Amino acid sequence: MKKMTFLFLLTGFWAFGQNFVDVTGSLPQLTFGFSAFGDYDGDGDLDLYYTGQLNANSNGGGLYLNFNGTFSLVTNSGLPILNTGAADWGDVDGDGDMDLVIMGYDNSVGVTDVYINNGNGTFSASNTGLLDSYMGDVVFGDYDNDGDLDIALTGVETTNWTFFSKVYVNDGNGNYTESSLNLPPMNYGKIKFIDFDNDNDMDITLAGWNDTTNNPYTKVWQNDGSQNFTELNLGFPQLWLGDFEWGDVDGDGDLDFVITGTSNQDSEAHLMLNNNNTFTDDPHFNITAAHRVANIELVDFDINGSLDVFITGVNVSGSNEDLIAKLYENNGSGIFVENTNESFAAVQYGDADAADYDNDGKIDLFLTGTDANFFGVGKLYHNEHPNSIKEELAKNFTIYPNPAHDVLNIDNQEQFDYKVQITDLTGKSILNQNGEGNIHINVSNLPTGMYLVKISNHKDSFVKKLIIK
After folding, report:
1. Cβ neighbours around 82 below 10 Å, total
2. Which of 149, 226, 238, 141 is nearest to 191 (CA)?
3. Per-residue pLDDT tens for 287-336?
4. By mean pLDDT, which of 91-105, 196-210, 294-308 is the weakest?
5. CA distance linking residue 67 with residue 49, whole number of Å
6. Which of 1, 65, 181, 191 has the most crowded CB, counting CB atoms within 10 A?
């Protein structure tokens, strides 16, 4: 039986303020770093895998245990110490704890594998046969809709030093075989599983420099539900050395696409608005673009029910180059305004990860990479955005049962229109749904863990913490 517990967090709208506080502590400062939040010990909070380069000859970092919001290095985790890579958490063997897929560079060759959680704070390499690689991306996702986690991987393999993009299929027991999907090879590629067309199967988004055509590349490969994929021309800008994210920016219930990068020299940033799987480049999206290698986080930092944009990387415009780190807050109508009161470390060739690491209902931010002088950066920022005392909206709703197993009921006493969003603690959108009156949400497929449930109307919003055990 899944167990669900709710805690109230009330929010409203407010003026810009300085809300992110540097709480880095003893975390190391690493170049070409990458990171991933995940609850490896099952205690309900997010731990951190963070690694990168200490100097030209050695790497640093590792697995950091979160204890009451303070991170300490686990010295015997068995996880590799790498740079210029990527990592993703997921339960690949169905035993209820979080495993980790990692790709990166050990300063001589690439290392890529799934590391199985032994349940005692240590991990073991599974020797899955993934191509040893770095300078790319790796993610979990259910490619064939069979209920287990497959792997998408892109980068440069370090046997013959060639670029590639591949999908590996899980047999249900954590054993992987390469699929027949023929994706183009990517230099500094980014890859994600996402159901962009809301047909309940996972599509693939791929961006980078196409090593076959020698051109920047951004395309969606659409899944027909039977693992037959079609490369779509959706009118996306063809960019590389950047990043992209999917999310419902305009609150209409479908997934929009935000991307930054470069097609030649100058940096570009675009918001592609989704209207029934037809995409339009939003002319009002006016954020500072970046590449080399940029990072975007598309999450609700100010907890007003709308997705904000954080971006870091090098902005290039003609002969001018600036290393930036900027937060743009969504006013609720898809219009983004820079919050100039915030101050973040600007990084390139690194990583940005948003997550509620201290379980206070607000999304925090971790940054790693290389600064303008090519020194290492590793910064943890705690989101201390004030909660509103307004309770009027929350009083109209009853959310039950608690615990819940199959269906989550949301009753609205006043029968007005509202929006429901469920995210995980990294800010990743799990569900977006418009409501009127009483609605019922199927939660039987949600993995164990902690989530945020946000309910908003045209002027206010509130958040409930959702724990599934």
Report:
1. 27
2. 141
3. 999 999 999 999 999 888 789 999 999 999 999 999 999 999 998 888 99
4. 294-308
5. 14
6. 191
